[in-house]
Amino acid sequence: MQYLDFEKPIADLERKIEELSNLTIADDDVLSPEIKRLKKRVEELRTSIFSNLTRWQKVQLARHPDRPYTLDYIYSITENFMELHGDRYHSDDKAIVGGLATIDGRSVMIMGHQKGRDTQSRQHRRFGMANPEGYRKAYRLMKLAEKFDIPVITLLDTPGAYPGLEAEERGQAEAIAKNLKMMATLKVPIVTVVIGEGASGGAIGIGMGNEVYMMENTWYSVISPESCSSILWKTWDYKEQAAAVLRLTAEDLEGLNIIDGIIKEPLGGAHRDPDSSAAAVKRQLLTSLKRLKKMKPETLVEKRIEKYSKMGEWEKRATAKSGKSKTNAK
Amino acid sequence: MAWFKRKDKNIQTEQRKEMPEGVWIKVPTTGETVHRRELEDNLWVDPLSDYHFRIGSDKYFSFLFDKGKFKEIGQDIVPTDPLKFEDRKKYSDRLDQYQKKTGHSDAVRVGVGKMNDLDVVIACMDFDFMGGSMGSVVGERLGMAIDHARKQKKPLIIISQTGGARMQESILSLMQMAKTSAKLAQLEEEGVPYISYMTNPTTGGVTASFAMLGDFNIAEPGSLIGFAGPRVIRQTIGRDLPEGFQTAEYLLDHGFLDLIVPRTQMKDELSKLLKLVLHKFA
To answer: Domains (ranges, CATH) in chain B?
Structure first.
């Protein structure tokens, strides 16, 4: 298990416990109580550290290399998963995966951004950064789901759409834009969960759910803290401040009425107990799907359009200021 | 191929002068000077090199709408600072500063009027206002423009010039991509035509939402159009970008634009297209 910088006190203690454990044989009268005491201390420490996480620390947790990824959730939540490949135009993008499966016996179309675990698979998955083909595959799968009246589940975990030469050449912007317009009017339920990183257009490109949830230690924003720092402060050094001002955590987005709820994670993050994390996600999905199943297709579309049409905050000026009088008719 | 070599544009929400001051104006691509009056008479397009100087909503509206007459909608929607965003400067201060400097309250304006006798709704972004970035107000005003076009069955034209979504409104800005796209999906169902006219530059979340969703995607010559900015792509791939990459001409060549239409022909070409769609030649 890898530890993050702010988890160092926990790591130190756990190492000590391990050393002591290696020294003892069965019930050692001297060491056992000490180990017990230290274990209690670790739990206290973990509780205190994790109840006061900064926004940047949550970003770090969302990117934790041991965190469960889309396929991990798919394999633990669903049965009968059949991965479907390809956009039918150019290739099969490895940074977005998806296919048919069942959840408690009911068919779903489930898809999400996929990251890799080691150097090779990270490159294979392009670090979870999709090319246009990924978005076009998602488009195809969602339209298939609509055709066969199957609800759609999307899991978001991307540092952004891939900013590459070929991605531009093959229309990254067009692919994302088409998905947004298509999702708006899709006649089956869409439930979206941010399971890690939700960066910008690359995330929302498959994320226009009727209901959108975020796991406790994830982030969702228009830009990554690093890029925000480089643009607004002209250096990469202000990523922590950028994370703070971007207000990108699950709590922030719940407060802004952008998401429908937060899925609790085990103490220390989803990777500390992947099974219970998956169970929590599954519970939410089942609740949402049950609720959305009752809606007619037109209602689903209407509610979805209404949901996104309401988003944004502005003021309404009492007296409308007219434009330049010389060019204004009235 | 590009008609001229583009210099790198640093797409940021920085103030950029719309128009150079003075009587003699230097054309960035050729280094030649041209008289201000000559430019004004030619809609700020250099007659010799065809270089398109960037202009804002005031000027587009003045020549697109017949006699420059239009009714503006959405002006009562004004920006706030919902996240109390502060980097080196407060967002609320930036808003004040740009409002004073540009005379606009945000980065898009919506006009309703006639273009060559056709009823149209035209939304035009202003790059001068925080790099034409899209926040809640841009999304809401565009939503109003789209709704107006849908209800009144008037063709819609959106003129884009933008660096993308506005960082200072974080997730709220991102959601404007979903909002404008959802509204356009409604417009589509009513069969009302929508022309997206992209100018220099059109990048980021705007390209990845309403700008690429036109029934007709049209661009001004030489415009930079893309999702990621050239600087970011260069950093990612670690080498120089090919000449003409992400220009309007490049996009036309790769199948993402219907047409490139110079500003001087914009009004007539767009009217012609709408008349063809609306069976007005009969």
So the answer is: 24-53 (no CATH), 56-278 (3.90.226.10)
